[in-house]
Amino acid sequence: ANEDVCTIQILMSDTGGGHRASANALRDAFDVLHPGKIQCDIVDIFTDYGPFWPFTDYPAIYKIMAEYSFLWDWFYHLGASPFGIAVNEFLMELFCFDSFQECLARPSGSTNHRADMVISVHPLCQDVPLKILSSLDTNGQTRSPDARTTPFVTVVTDLGGAHPTWFNKGVNKCFVPTDALYQCARDRNVQPDQLVQYGLPIRRGFWDQASGKEQKTPVQLRQELGLDVELPTVLMVGGGDGMGGIVDIAAEVGDKLGSGSSTPAYQMVVVCGSNEKAKQALSSKQFGDGVKVNVQGFVNNMDEWMQASDAIVTKAGPGTIAEASICGLPCMLFSYLPGQEEGNVPFVENSGFGKFSGDPTVIAETVSSWLASPEKMNSLKEAALQAARPSATLDIAKDLADMVFAQKEKLRAKEPVKVGRA
Ligand code: UDP
């Protein structure tokens, strides 16, 4: 066992693609900043340690609810009411405390002891894990949060709005990406000295200029990706799961873009994510002569597809919006998950780098009007870059690394550790 490394357990669940993406991004940032010094134990705590259904099936249930957004709307708002929050906390503590405790107590990384620090990147991983840590730190004598000696941090992975369960005033630090979420945290009594605002942690391709990866021009990227080098290029994305009605929207927007000309005037790339059915349906569809269409399934080089494009049409996913802003891409939003992603629409519109419409005609007209005006494209691009936080992932990782190194020192000195609210 290697007792020199610091270990961090990252709690998440694969409800949507964003939580794991953020966890991986933090792990990658630790590797860049402190190679070999910090080991991350990333765990889908519901799938792996849920006591029984439905806890063990949260990712699949989330997928169904997100597809039928009225269900999600109802569930999200019920869960955000004081009654819903209390019921959720009661049921989670009743049913999940023991099995989640196994998760938090497990040996971390290559060591034979539990993690030196715990990070949550999920809205349902605050309350019970905090109680468990107090219990573990005191051998079960008390669950008082004040008795907790293991640092616990929340890194919020939503952007313009967030569920109240993200915010627990017992954490050491809570990282929020935007002013709107800073306020949500304050509304839940998280104190200014607990809050840090940098931006959203996002995957390595968008921030790691130091990785030695050659910076390519949009023309080089288009050639490598098999795209037309000249045509104005619209990228369509429906989130990691390819949801939000991407088939209908892509078909109709493609038809509109393709109808104005007998030779290609646009090219449209549709990234269907893990939605295989959407990929098949769109691959076999005939579009008009005015548009070239390129259909992709799940891509692992989203940074390249974004850098090769002129504008993006997307579901209002926080990760995709943050990534697009870093690439200076104007954003046309076509749907959002009620509650959770609703606040991402004003974030984009008020920052001045995009619009929302659920109507394919309006989407096609808006995007083509942007592409036709170099001044408009410039102002959208400037606004996107202004809203972008490309250094957020490294900034967050730096702070977290400092915390875990300090914790390790305390453990080494074997002084009684009092963390409280750092
Ligand atoms: N993504 C990807 N490949 C795909 C589709 C999506 O890497 O084929 C990534 C995308 O770049 C973003 C994430 O998946 O980082 C989607 O996160 P977002 O918060 O936008 O939506 P979610 O899927 O969580 O609803």
Structural account:
This is monogalactosyldiacylglycerol synthase. Pfam families: Glyco_tran_28_C, MGDG_synth. Its EC number is 2.4.1.46. GO terms for molecular function: 1,2-diacylglycerol 3-beta-galactosyltransferase activity. The chain is an alpha/beta fold. 44% of the residues lie in helices and 14% in strands. It contains 16 helices and twelve strands. The chain has helices at residues 18-33, 45-49, 58-67, 69-80, 82-105, 127-137, 179-187, 218-224, 246-258, 276-283, 302-307, 318-326, 344-351, 360-372, 374-387, 392-413; strands at 6-12, 38-44, 117-120, 152-155, 173-176, 195-197, 233-237, 266-271, 291-296, 311-315, 331-335, 354-356. The strands form two sheets. The chain has a six-stranded parallel sheet, with helices on both faces. Strands 9-8-7-10-11-12 form a six-stranded parallel sheet, with helices on both faces. Helix 3 (58-67) packs across helix 4, helix 9 (246-258) packs across helix 14 (360-372) and helix 12 (318-326) crosses helix 15 (374-387). Uridine-5'-diphosphate is lined by residues 16-18, 21, 203, 237, 239-241, 271, 273, 298-299, 302, 317-320, 323.
Concise overview:
By secondary structure, this protein is an alpha/beta fold. The chain contains 16 helices and twelve strands. The two termini are 29 Å apart.
